[in-house]
Write a structure and sequence with these properties.
Elements (H helix, E strand, L loop, with lengths): L6 H13 L24 E2 L5 E2 L4 E2 H11 L1 H6 L7 H17 L1 H7 L1 E3 L2 E3 L11 H8 L3 E8 L8 E8 L2 E8 L8 H11 L14 E5 L4 E4 L10 E2 L21 H6 L2 H10 L2 E6 L6 E6 L3 H17 L15 H12 L3 E2 L2 E2 L3 E6 L2 H14 L6 E3 L7 H10 L4 E5 L3 H11 L5 E5 L8 H10 L12 H11 L1
Parallel strand pairs: 1-6, 8-9, 16-18, 16-19, 17-18
Antiparallel strand pairs: 2-3, 4-5, 6-7, 7-8, 9-10, 10-11, 12-13, 14-15
Length: 472
């Protein structure tokens, strides 16, 4: 059977994979199209006419979710009618998303008058039936030809993805067989999608995807011509792009493996984030939205899966090229390792992150604190402090699960672990494991290792760390 790879065909392929049917658009007065029992990955087919352009919500999905999960609040909010009560609530919801971002609103809900509203239920524990039931009431919906503009009413996006009525992802689709590629989709976002439209404000949609049948690119903030799209590809033959797919399109991993209900939930809970950065020179603060690239998701998921299967004690090498988001990968890995469980026990009691450069130490510390949902879990041993051992003792006693040290403070950390915490399990993440050392750092390491044997010539950072651990 020949695959339809026109834009319309791609829409139908993606929707069928997600929802089990092609989600064909219908008119408001048209009878809904009968849909089969879900054979996709748990998504629901939405309709563009249910999308409220003023408040950026799919009213039908939001209303259905609140009725099913918080019926008294749904009734009080009068969601069935275009009333002042409903408009006040939608304005409140829109304001919270503008201020905090969709990610935070989904994670923590909103307070409106006497109502504390949950807007999303996260991944349930396998042994918690009530949480499993709540999670099943989430409404993941996909809408084709989403008419989003308040002013240009005929403008539409190829696809929009929603969670409980809140938009999280948009798509522009192209077909290389008709001489249009992912680059044309990128240019369409840059040229035709006004970043002042409410749907495209920073923090509202989590990510925007440009897709053709060969490649995927992603952007977390549309800025017109300045929009920055990064590749979201598997890689092929140690290079860019995607491998041939004997079972379909090269890019179908995006909707078959990444954008499943469970996969997107995991990204929302553990990866996606709006972070605030500060320019040290000007003091200006800037908000940036983060969404993981494919290689970052892939490496963290693989290490977590292997650690659950094999427990502590194994070694891994992660290769990242310059500019590929190494600090974020370390942060995501560290804060998920602390909650990793095998059976009824934690796989690791604490995570130690080691870096060999002070500037990078500060960067990593800030990044990990931003991604760790609970700030109290992170502690950084200050290199210049004479009481490094005391700091470590306090961090371990206070239950700090992630401890960041430089290579100079690591021997003190290892002494503390070996003397007082010998029965615990620690994951050690070495940043830039193969970077070379020299000058003051090398001299300091020589001193630190003087009881562990002589330092070898041309010894790498990783070699030194390994020798410290083996000597202890």
């Amino acid at each position: 059977m020949k695959t339809d790879t026109s834009e319309r065909g791609l829409e139908r392929i993606i929707c069928t994979a997600l929802a089990g049917h092609p989600c064909d658009p219908v008119q408001p007065n048209q009878a809904p199209v009968p849909t089969p029992a879900c054979v996709g990955s748990g998504w629901i087919g939405g309709q563009s006419y249910d999308y409220d352009r003023e408040y950026c919500v799919d009213l039908a999905q939001l209303r259905t979710f609140l009725r099913a999960t918080q019926p008294e609040a749904a009734k009080a909010l009068n969601l069935d009618e275009d009333s002042p009560t409903r408009r006040t609530f939608l304005a409140r919801l829109q304001g919270e998303i503008t201020k905090r971002g969709t990610i935070d609103v989904l994670r923590h809900g909103v307070k409106h008058g006497p109502h504390d509203l949950d807007l999303f239920y996260g991944t349930p524990s396998p042994d918690n039936p009530a949480a499993i039931e709540r999670y099943a009431k989430n409404r993941f919906s996909v809408t084709r030809q989403l008419r989003y503009s308040r002013d240009e009413t005929q403008l539409s996006l190829d696809l929009g993805l929603f969670i409980n009525g809140l938009p999280v992802t948009t798509f522009e689709l192209k077909n290389s067989l008709t001489k249009q590629t992912v680059e044309d989709a990128v240019q369409q976002y840059k040229r035709d999608r006004n970043p002042r439209e409410r749907l495209f404000e920073l923090g509202r949609c989590i990510v925007h995807f440009a897709v053709d049948d060969h490649e995927v690119r992603m952007c977390t903030q549309l800025k017109g011509k300045a929009s920055w799209f990064l590749p979201f590809n598997l890689g092929w033959n140690d290079g860019a792009g995607n491998p041939p797919n004997p079972d379909g399109l090269k890019t179908d991993y995006l909707w078959k493996r990444i954008l499943t209900c469970e996969g997107l939930t995991e990204i929302l809970e553990n990866y996606a984030q709006v972070v605030e950065t500060k320019d040290e020179k000007t003091g200006r603060k800037k908000r940036v939205q983060i969404f993981p690239r494919y290689h970052q998701l892939d490496v963290v998921r693989k290490i977590l899966a292997d650690s659950i299967q094999n427990g502590a004690g194994k070694r891994y090498m992660i290769q990242h090229s310059a500019g590929s988001g190494k600090s974020n990968s370390i942060a995501w890995l560290a804060h998920q390792l602390i909650s990793l469980r095998k059976g009824n026990a934690n796989v690791f009691d604490s995570i130690i992150v080691i870096t060999d450069r002070r500037i990078l130490d500060q960067q990593l510390r800030a990044t990990i604190k931003q991604f760790a949902q609970v700030g109290a879990t992170v502690g950084a041993v200050k290199e210049g402090d004479a009481s490094k051992t005391k700091q470590l003792s306090e961090f371990l006693e206070q239950g700090k699960k992630i401890i960041i040290v430089t290579v100079q403070t690591f021997p003190a950390a290892l002494d503390k672990i070996g003397s007082e915490h010998r029965g615990k399990k620690f994951a050690i993440i070495i940043d830039e494991a193969h970077s070379s050392q020299g000058g003051k750092t090398s001299a300091a390491m020589s001193t630190a290792l003087s009881v562990s044997g002589a330092e070898e010539e041309e010894e790498t950072f990783e070699d030194k760390i390994n020798r410290i651990m083996e000597a202890r």
